[in-house]
Amino acid sequence: MGDADPQVRGALAACLTDDAYRTSYLEAVSTLCAGARLFMPVLADEDGDMGAVKLTNEHGSTALLAFTGIDSLMAWDSRARPVPGSLSDLAATVTEVGADALLIDVAGPAPFVIGADVLTPIEKGARLVKLDDGWGWMRSAGSS
Length: 144
What we know:
The protein has 5 helices and 9 strands. With 144 residues, the protein is of the alpha+beta class. The protein has a single domain, classed as Trna Endonuclease, Chain: A, domain 1. Strands 3-4-6-7 form a 4-stranded mixed β-sheet. A hairpin with a 7-residue loop joins strand 6 and strand 7 (112-115). The longest helix is centred in the N-terminal third of the chain and has 13 residues, at 21-33.
């Protein structure tokens, strides 16, 4: 029920080993855009309110966390509750919580970061697709 999609995990793992990182990165984003289910962790704060989790790096940039499966979420923090969603759902949440990026599988097996430049069109209903001559954004007729 909360198992990771092997195709998604494979696409993210390819970014760690592929010499042509740009291509493997775009492949991974395209795979995530194709309807992959991710899990956003929520944790209780000191007042007991549940909320999304952001991490801040040493430069002050923040990232909303997401995971490809319950196993990777539990490896990060077994107290977290998983909230399933698509990449477009999480792109909207990145904006909502004021984060700079989406960080997938921070504890492994293959950490992956998607920045605002890629998340913005996804939030607006576009998905990255491979074309015969490169890559492009595709929108359905009803999206903005």
